[in-house]
Amino acid sequence: MSRPLVLIVSPALADANNGNWQTAWRWSRLLAGQFRTQIVKAWRAGEQPEAVAMLALHARRSAASIAAWAQLHPGRGLAVVLTGTDLYRDIHGDASARRSLALAQRLVVLQEQGPQGLPAEYWARTRVIFQSSSTRRALDKTGHHLRAVMVGHLREEKSPQTLFEAARLLRERHDIHLDHIGEALDPVLGEQARATMAACPNYRWLGGLAHEATRRRIQRAHLLVHASRMEGGAHVLMEAVCSGTPVLASRIPGNVGMLGGDYGGYFPVGDAAALAALLRLCRDAAGRVSALRAQCQLRAPLFAPAAERESLLALLQDLI
Questions:
Q1: Which residues are 249's β-sheet partners?
Q2: Is residue 140 part of a domain?
Q3: Which residues lie below 8 Å from residue 167, measured CB to CB, with a gap of 6+?
C-alpha cells in the first residue's frame, strides 16, 4: 500500500537558498519514512488529488494555496507554518494572512515565544515545532583573534546596518574580525556593505555562499552574530548552537524563543554600540565565550532531528 501524500507549500524553492526552502526540504526528508511528500511553490484545486494534508509555509505568501485547499477540503488536513514576517507584521495588517489563520486546523510556530505573537483565539490550535540541524564537532579556535560571522541575505529585516555600524566602531580592533555572508537582496545595503569593507579592514562581506560552505564558516567562527529585527525562528541560530558556536543576538521574541530568556548574549535590536561592546567583552574577558557556549549547549537538544520528526508526525496525526 502506497504511503499517503503530504504537500509542502513553500514560496521559495531551492534556487532561493533561504529559510523557507531549508524547512521544506528538511521536512520532506524527515517525513519520508511515513509519507510521500511533494514540495510546490503554489497549489491549485485539482492538482495531486490524492494528497491527505497540506503544510503551507507563510500565511501571506501562500494564502492562495491555503484558500484553495480549504475550499476543496473544508475543516481538514491544513496546517499553516508562520514565519517571522507573518507573526510580527503581516497578520496584524494583511487580510489574506489573517484569513489563512482562520482557515487552518493547526498553526505552527518555530520557537517557544511564537504563540504570544498570535491573537489569543488561536493559541489552542497552535503547535511549537523547533527546527533541527545536524550536529557538528566543535572546533578549537585560535587565540590570536576573535572571528564573528553574520549570516543572512542583506535585507531590512536582518538589520545588516547594525553590523556595518559595529564594524566602524571596532575598526581599530585588529584582533576582532567580522565576516558577513549573504546576497544583497537590497542593492542599497550591498553598496553599504562594500563601503564598510573599504573603510574597515576588520570587516569582510563574502556575498552569498552555498549552505555547506556557510556551515563550515559558522563552525570555524568564535561567535555567530544575529542582528535581525524580525524572526520566526532562524535556521542559522540552531546551526550555530549545533556546531558549538555561541551567538550574539538581538533581543527579539524570535531569538529569545530559540535561545531562552536568560541567555547572556543579547543586545537591543539595532544597537550597534551594544553589539560592539559585547564583541569587545568576548575578546577581552577570559571565559566569556565559553560561558555562552555552555548556555547554548543546554538548548541544543531542542534542535535534534529526532525531536523535530516526532513533532511533525504528531502534527500530521492531528490533521489526518
A1: 226, 266
A2: no
A3: 178, 196, 200, 202, 203
pTM of the model: 0.89
List 204's β-bridge partners, or say none: 179
In the DSSP assignment, the letter for residue 22 is H
Domains contained in the chain, number: 2
Query: pLDDT digit string (tens) for 285-315?
Result: 989 999 999 999 999 999 999 999 999 999 9
Q: Which residues contact 23 (CB under 8 A, 6 or more apart)?
A: 10, 57, 81, 110, 131, 235
Say if residue 112 is in the same domain as residue 173.
Answer: no
**For residue range 150-209, what is the model confidence (pLDDT) as tens digits?**
999 999 999 999 999 999 999 999 999 999 999 999 999 999 999 999 999 999 999 999
- How remote is the C-alpha of 110 from its chain's centroid? 8
Cβ pair 188, 218 in contact under 8 A: no
Task: Quote the distance between the C-alpha of residue 282 and its chain's center.
Answer: 24
Q: Please tell me whether residues 36 and 58 are part of one structural domain.
A: yes
Cα–Cα dist 253/285, whole Å: 28
Q: Give phi and psi for 30, each to the nearest 5.
A: -65, -30
